[in-house]
Amino acid sequence: MKKILSFDIDNTLNEPKMPIFPEMAELLATLSQKYIIAPISGQKYDQFLIQIINNLPESANLDNFHLFVAQGTQYYAHKDGEWKQVFNYALTDEQANAIMGALEKAAKELGHWDESVLAPGDEINENRESMIAYSAIGQKAGVEAKQAWDPGMTKRNEIAKLASQYAPEFEFEVAGTTTINGFVPGQNKEFGMNHLMEELNVTKEEILYFGDMTQPGGNDYPVVQMGIETITVRDWKETAAILKAIIAMEEA
To answer: Which residue of 5, 115, 153, 188 has the lowest C-beta tally within 10 Å?
Structure first.
């Protein structure tokens, strides 16, 4: 029996970097009455709030929401009416600079570093404390621009491969629509899921995971490799349809 519904965020619960739609917010709120809702994503904590939590209706049981930030290298739980950080495997300044330097060098060498396209105040390399996220056209770029930049993941796979040569002591993987995550080896979503199971005292068999990048090399693939039951979705609408079916079965 499933106790945990765990989700990637971008392209699984929402459109990239956008707040969840009201329909998804209502579905998550309904499911939070029975299940633990555990999003796990490369996003930083503020984006979990902006994209998910701040859009939930009052009916949502926030104590059943558990946020596994930056691939699960950071964990936030709702206790006593507020969000509290439980742990954070933060990078040292030296580690962060090494990862950012490798991504910048690789992207420039391959012709994929152009700060002129960034929105004001945006950046290509974002330090998310426990990981670095390269976003080719910035975090603030529009949905259509993001989806059009590298739909086949060819550019990002090339950058990630070259960055790993410049900084072999770290791992680089493709995520989102224009993103590459750089982190300490082993601190991918398998790391996050292992901590999720430990913190919430559940087994693999009690988790159902939803993600859009479950193919080898995608940032959801480590969850698949763990043997956790995973549903691959193309977009948030497909996720919503499956969640409606889960609710209908519960009500039958």
So the answer is: 115
Say if CB 67 and CB 187 are below 8 A apart: no
* Model pTM score: 0.92
What are the strands of the beta sheet with 229-232, ordered from one edge?
A: 36-39, 4-7, 207-211, 229-232
Q: pLDDT tens digits, residue range 15-68?
A: 988 999 999 999 999 999 999 999 999 999 999 999 999 999 999 999 999 999
Nearest to 33 by CA among 63, 69, 67: 63
Is 186 exposed, middle or buried (CB count within 10 Å of its CB: 0-12, 13-18, 19+)?
exposed
* 73 in Cβ contact with 130 (< 8 Å): yes
- Tell me the pLDDT tens digit for each residue of 196-226: 999 999 999 999 999 999 999 889 999 999 9
CA distance 96 to 51: 25
Is residue 38 classed as helix, strand or coil in its secondary structure? Answer: strand
Q: How far apart are the first and last CA of the chain?
A: 16
**Residue 200 and residue 184: Cα distance in Å, rounded?**
24
Structure tokens at 190: 């398998």
CB count within 10 Å of CB 210 equals 23
